[in-house]
Design brief:
Largest sheet: 2 strands, parallel
Strand order of the largest sheet: 1-2
Family: Belongs to the sigma-70 factor family. ECF subfamily.
Radius of gyration: 24 Å
InterPro entries: DUF6596, RNA_pol_sigma70_r2, RNA_pol_sigma70_r4_t2, RNA_pol_sigma_r2, RNA_pol_sigma_r3/r4-like
Strand content: under 5%
Distance between the termini: 48 Å
Mean pLDDT: 88
Protein name: RNA polymerase sigma factor
Number of helices: 19
GO molecular function: DNA binding; sigma factor activity
Organism: Actinoalloteichus hoggarensis
């Protein structure tokens, strides 16, 4: 995109590169670095297209500018090409949501359906938003160039959000048969480390890297040998990556000492509190509730409110948390978000209201798309239903 200068041409060149790869790799074999091969081919096709266009306009003087500009600015501003593209795509002329969605789609390769789930909207709605963003870029002739150093801070929050959503899409896949998409998790962690090297004094950058490290430290224990989901309370903590947890904790402490109280630092502090507890039961739940209150003040999100309700249940009991969940359900902002009925089901189960729990598990199962999560929810529903069946009429009015 940096070479092409506009979205449409960039997408066309990438598609042409994939077509060329199918032919060349079938004939010559897969190269040692397929990603570099595709990037180089797409860049050459973009340059060829630009040269053809310039020739038609008899403006030969501009033919060499894209390469020269790229070399001069990219190396000085953002040393890594992947991170550079993320900063480039998070253009301030677009609304924040459009920046993030477009970057996830074009640069990170996340599907429109999975982006839609991250934003809690339908796939159709998200597709329309991405299309509108592309049209705005084309109509306004917004130049896609690597931002100068002084322009990076205004794009930082969008870049942090892109990396975080890329991680969460891999950490718990919105769809498919696997709970974890390791390739997305690893890519997000690499980007976070590069961002830390680029902007080492930014507390939120430290917080994001810490959050990713601590959450991913549990990767090996989140599913069993058959791919079945294992709850946090039941995971083997001796198998967690203690080095990653300690590095994340150190980053959180550094960020807090630097005055960082942003959403990524606070989320990382919560994750670190989970990870450093000797057992699930011994987690410092009151302290975690304090952190969630701070997070709710810094970042008003219904998802944060739902997660806070889970912690509230450990402090004040499931009945208090169920009232919070009912309020979220009534507000409607989490409609279609399967974790809402899943949390509700667990609270009802703990209150001994098994019939209602079975209905809520069914609702969660119906809206979940990840097979590992669906299998877990089906098992929980069957268990609850064995103690109190959920009839059709109960679910309809739930």
């Amino acid at each position: 995109m940096r070479v092409a200068g506009e979205v449409g041409l960039a997408e066309e060149c990438v598609q042409d590169a994939y077509v060329a790869a199918l032919r060349a790799w079938a004939r010559d074999g897969i190269p040692a670095n397929p990603a570099a091969w595709l990037t180089t081919t797409a860049r050459r096709k973009a340059l060829d297209a630009l040269r053809r266009a310039e020739t038609l306009r008899a403006r030969r003087r501009l033919l060499a500018e894209p390469e020269a500009y790229e070399a001069d600015v990219a190396v000085e501003t953002v040393p890594d090409d992947r991170l550079s593209l993320v900063f480039t795509c998070c253009h301030p002329a677009l609304a924040r949501e459009a920046q993030v969605a477009l970057t996830l789609r074009l640069i990170c390769g996340v599907s429109t359906a999975d982006i839609a789930k991250a934003f809690l909207v339908s796939e159709t709605t998200m597709a329309a938003r991405i299309t509108r963003a592309k049209k705005k870029i084309t109509a306004a002739r917004i130049p896609y160039r690597v931002p100068a150093p002084e322009e990076l801070p205004e794009r930082l929050d969008a870049v942090l959000t892109v990396i975080h959503l890329l991680f969460t899409t891999g950490h718990t896949a919105p769809s498919g048969g696997r709970l974890v998409r390791s390739e997305l998790v690893d890519r997000a962690a690499d980007l976070a480390r590069m961002l830390r090297e680029l902007m080492p004094d930014e507390p939120e950058v430290r917080g994001l890297l810490a959050l990713l490290l601590v959450n991913d430290a549990r990767r090996a224990t989140r599913t069993d040998a058959d791919g079945r989901l294992v709850l946090l309370a039941e995971q083997d903590r001796s198998q967690w990556d203690s080095d990653a947890i300690e590095e994340g904790h150190r980053l959180v402490v550094e960020a807090l000492r630097a005055g960082g109280v942003g959403r990524f630092v606070l989320q990382a502090a919560i994750a670190a509190l989970h990870a450093r507890a000797p057992t699930y039961a011994d987690t410092d739940w009151p302290q975690m509730l304090v952190l969630y209150d701070a997070l709710s003040a810094a970042w008003q999100s219904p998802v944060v409110a739902l997660n806070r309700a889970v912690v509230l249940a450990m402090v004040d009991g499931p009945a208090a948390a169920l009232a919070e969940v009912a309020a979220l359900e009534h507000a409607g902002s989490l409609a279609g978000y399967h974790y809402l009925p899943a949390v509700k089901a667990d609270l009802l189960r703990r209150l001994g209201r098994h019939s209602e729990a079975a209905c809520a598990y069914r609702d969660a199962w119906e809206t979940a798309d990840n097979e590992a999560e669906r299998a877990f929810l089906a098992a929980r529903r069957a268990e609850a239903a064995s103690r109190g069946a959920c009839g059709p009429e109960e679910g309809a009015g739930d």
